[in-house]
Design goal:
This protein is mainly beta. The chain has a domain of 120 residues. It is 10% helix and 35% strand. The strands form four sheets. It has a six-stranded parallel β-barrel with strand order 8-10-12-14-13-11. It has a four-stranded parallel β-sheet with strand order 22-24-26-28, with no helix packed on it. Helix 4 links the parallel strand 31 and strand 32.
């Protein structure tokens, strides 16, 4: 009996302890919008060090901003089970009280409003966003001296930091966005950052000479520098990357790309010889875009990669093509658009299977390709004449659509097409009710034809009758 009583006594103590422990912190999301609410929270939960849900220090839904001036009563907090959001607190000039938090399961979002230093004890977090919403003259110094890894994204608007904010950060498992004025970046701003598993996006501009912001960076999934301005910081030498988006304004980043050999996607805007040379070890790209239109490239678009042997899909856009002959050993698909020359010659003898020419502004088009699976000519407002290699053999689909001024397709009579799909529509000047089309119609099944909206509204049946 004594054993039974003792056991009940022990269980009772354990239940009391568990209930007391659970009551130390609230079991729901918390929003604190005033100093009074913070004091009330601390008095109600004086021993709370670990929240199981999210904490917001800022205005409630009915408020534009909070009235908070002091968060020091929250100094016991060590862990947040959800996210920590500290935003829209224009009178909060000191974050003392939050510096002891070591673990945030969700994202930490901070808006800095002061000149005072915020030295965080953070060891781990699901993401981090730091911004300066209205204090452009501030020189707030924030530092995370123990943060080695982020399990989510990092977004930083860099201002007048007096020291390196992330001296030991080694890995970001989400995206990394750097924005603001590059003149306030420091040499080796991220001295240890080796890997970014998401996208590195640089949205910065400045006037000072370029510096090295990410000297240790080697592994990256996506590099997006389309919005980079001329005098900006460079990154380390990348050894691996899946996708790259970059413009020729970004001179200082080019040497970082010299070791990359394979890419899933590469988009180069206004590429010149210097940019092309930067990819001198690149051998294979799944999807390659060379865009000379977006930044109004002067001169011809360059395609002469030193080592590039294989591209699954090459897209060429814009400015000053007279003759396209991609120097690539193996090319599966070629798309050409927004060309503004009056005459365009396309020559490919490297196994290209699919050719698309669309949204161009040329009067004449010549295609010198011996074999194709699919040929797609569409949405050209000025195209008047088109010629092809007399030996062209098509095995898949021929589409000619929305070419407003195209009047003739005499070349169709020599096209070798066996059981291919024919789609010719919305070409108001194109005459198809002539015997030139007989040869291809005989070799195409009726259910594989779509002919409509051309001159005289001729249909497949009309052409078949004409060809008897």
């Amino acid at each position: 009996m004594n054993v039974s009583i003792n056991l009940k006594w022990v269980l009772g103590i354990l239940m009391f302890w568990c209930l007391n422990l659970s009551s130390q912190c609230p079991d729901s999301d918390i929003i604190l919008s005033s100093d009074e609410e913070i004091i009330h929270f601390v008095r109600r939960y004086p021993d709370c060090i670990s929240l199981t849900h999210s904490l917001t220090i800022g205005p409630s839904k009915e408020m534009a901003t909070s009235r908070i001036t002091d968060v020091s009563p929250l100094h016991k907090l060590k862990k947040i089970g959800g996210s920590l959001t500290v935003v829209k607190n224009p009178w909060l000039t000191d974050l003392t009280g939050l510096q002891g938090i070591e673990d945030i399961a969700g994202k930490l979002e901070l808006e800095l409003q002061s000149d005072k230093t915020f030295r965080s004890s953070l060891l781990k977090a699901g993401g981090l966003v730091i911004s300066y919403p209205s204090c452009f003259s501030c020189s707030a110094d924030y530092i995370f001296p123990q943060l080695i890894k982020l399990s989510g994204p990092l977004q930083v608007s860099v201002l007048n930091n007096k020291s390196h904010a992330f001296p030991v950060l080694w890995k970001v498992e989400g995206d990394l966005l750097l924005s603001g004025n590059a003149d306030y970046f420091k040499e080796n701003e991220f001295p240890k950052l080796y890997e970014v598993q998401g996208e590195l996006e640089l949205r910065v501009k400045g006037f000072k000479p370029a510096i090295s912001v990410l000297p240790a960076l080697k592994k990256l999934n996506i590099l997006n520098c389309r919005y980079y301005e001329p005098h900006l910081a460079s990154i380390g030498v990348l050894e691996s990357c899946n996708e790259i988006y970059i413009s020729s304004k970004n001179k200082f980043i080019f040497e970082s790309l010299s070791k990359i050999r394979r890419l899933k996607k590469l988009e180069l805007y206004a590429p010149d010889s210097i940019m092309i040379h930067a990819f001198r070890q690149l051998v294979y790209v799944e999807d390659l875009l060379l865009d000379g239109a977006t930044y109004a490239l002067k001169g011809e678009l360059k395609t002469n990669f030193k080592s590039l042997k294989k591209v699954d899909h090459l897209k060429l856009a814009g400015n000053s093509f007279s003759h396209i002959y991609p120097a690539i050993d193996s090319l599966a698909a070629l798309t050409i658009y927004t060309i503004k020359d009056s005459i365009l010659n396309v020559s490919c003898h490297n196994g290209v299977q699919n050719l698309r020419v669309e949204y161009c502004y040329m009067k004449q088009l010549h295609i010198d390709i011996p074999t194709l699976t699919n040929l797609h000519i569409a949405d050209d407002e000025k195209l008047e004449t088109m010629t092809i290699n007399q030996q062209l053999e098509l095995t898949g689909r021929l589409q000619i659509s929305n070419c407003r001024k195209l009047k003739t397709a005499a070349w169709i009579d020599s096209l070798k097409c066996n059981q291919c799909y024919l789609s010719v529509y919305n070409n108001p000047e194109l005459e198809v009710c002539i015997k030139t089309w007989c040869n291809i119609i005989k070799n195409v099944a009726e259910q594989q034809c779509h002919i409509s909206g051309n001159k005289s509204q001729c249909t497949v049946n009309d052409i078949m009758v004409l060809c008897k």
